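Shift notes (night). Ran Putative membrane protein YczE while the centrifuge was going.
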Amino acid sequence: MDLFRRVPQLFVGLFLYGVSMALMVESDLGLNPWDVFHQGLSEVTGISFGWIVLIVGVPVLLLWIPLRQRPGFGTIANLVVVGFSADFALWVLPMGEGIPAKVGYLVGGILLNGFATGLYIGSRMGPGPRDGLMTGLAARFPRLSLRLIRTGIELIVLGAGFLLGGTVGIGTIAYALAIGPLAHLFLPLLTVPERRRGDRTVRLPDPDAHPMPS
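Came back to this:
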């Protein structure tokens, strides 16, 4: 019966995650590493930001195959919903004109991103393509810490995105500092409990293992 909560929670979380991405894009003050890459590709190709998010997710998902990762329902939903919701939000959001509006978009985007992360991961429906790549590499190379693998991946995509023209700025730093504490705050509050039959054991996801659902 918990599917009646988990499925709506998954889709609400993914939709809000896309909106949070759009808010940070409109702030023009800096994006998280993957979105710097997405924005850079969008600038170079002329393809919309949301479509780039979806397109990039496909080869990332294919990298799961040699890592023996299995996508869940949430993985496929992530691949589709986040990009479209980001494009929709970019279409309806007014431009952030002036520093107060830009800062408001940035702060709102980061806070909403943390909340959406808690909803999406807390639904326990499967990791997003980029999260699965990270956890798959960690499983394949157990001598490397998850944090080290995450940092390495994000530095690579951040550098590539910057070279392509993606926005790196104070928002990039603010996101890096804030997303961990926000995940620690929202994940325990929003995770659907996983109970074993015959007892009341509840297992929650590790916030450090799921930095972002994009």
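Confidence is low (pLDDT under 50) at residues 199-204. The chain has one domain: 9-191+203-209.
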